[in-house]
Every structure is written in C-alpha cells, then in structure tokens.
Amino acid sequence: MKVNNKCVVNELDGTKSVPSNNTCTLLTLSEVGEKIKLSDPKSIKKWLRQNGITIHKLATRAFVYDWELKVCLLKPMVLELIRKHPNQWREICRNIINEDVVFEMIMIELDNRPLILPKYKIQLNSVDEEKLYNELVA
Q1: pLDDT top residue among 29 and 122
Q2: What is the pLDDT of residues 20-30, one digit of tens each?
Q3: CA-CA distance, 56 to 123, in Å (whole number)?
Q4: How far apart are the first and last CA of the chain?
Q5: Are 59 and 48 a contacting pair, CB within 8 Å?
Q6: CA distance 74 to 30
Q7: Is 129 helix (H, G, I), strand (E, B) or coil?
Q8: Which residues are registered as beta bridge partners of 2?
Q9: Using one digit for the tens of pLDDT, what is the confidence trace for 82-120?
C-alpha cells in the first residue's frame, strides 16, 4: 500500500481511495458491489433491501452510507462472538472494530433485538448450579 499526499493506492488490486476520518462516507452501488462480490445493479439493490440498508439518491446516482454497510457486514461476526464468548464478546468486538460509529451502531442494534425466550424450564438442584445459571443468562 502506497500513500501519496492525496490518496492511498492498494498494491494488491490497484484501487485508489482518499483517506478520511469522515464517518459519513458515501459509497456508489458499484463500490458496494465490489465489497459484497456482486456486479449486477439489480442484485446489489436487492441485497441492500434484504439487509435493511437504505439506498439514498443524490442527483441521478444511488448511494449508501459506508458505516451502514459495515454494520451489516460485521453483524454476523458479532453474533458469532456472542455465541462463542458470552462473557467477553463486547471487549473482543471493541478490539476488532476500529470505528466508534460502527461499534456503537452494532451495540444499539443488538440491544434492540428480540429476547429469545427459553422453551424449557430448568430446575436447579444446588447453589453452584444456580450461580452457573445466573452467569450464563446475565
């Protein structure tokens, strides 16, 4: 990766990008297609709609926010972290996700997800089992 005074050139695929701390970066549909490995504009729009990402119009072109796409792409990984590391997933997630906006939006979305109610009632026989149960459901 080479850095010029105005843009970053990725040596692997030759793409150029402008470094920015702006979290409201807009992506065109073709840029989204590169990230999700789709090329047909109709397929890209369908994927965006299915994943709840709003397509914005600016003049005659369609755009999406970069942070919104990142949240959608990272959410399955975060759900897997929750499954594998139920007590430490937030810290692990915080270390993996560099952007504060993306991290906060994922946390907001996960806090609003529906609560999964258990199908079976668990009968606890000892104090140790009760402590373990409370740790697991907390």
Answers
A1: 29
A2: 455 578 899 99
A3: 52
A4: 44
A5: no
A6: 20
A7: helix
A8: 9
A9: 889 888 888 898 899 888 888 888 888 887 665 455 667
Domains along the sequence of the chain with CATH: 23-111 (1.10.1660)
At position 15, the amino acid (one-letter code) is: T
Q: Can you spell out the DSSP letters for 53-80?
A: PPPEEETTEEEEEHHHHHHHHHHHHHHH
User: What are the residues whose beta carbons fall under 8 Å from the beta carbon of 94, sequence distance 6 or more?
Assistant: 103
Q: Is the pTM of this model over 0.70?
A: no
Q: What is the dihedral of CA 63, 26, 18, 100, to 10 degrees?
A: -150
Q: What is the DSSP letter of 30?
A: H
Look up residue 114 and give its DSSP letter.
Answer: P
Give me the helix-helix angle, 100-111 and 66-84, nearest 10°: 60
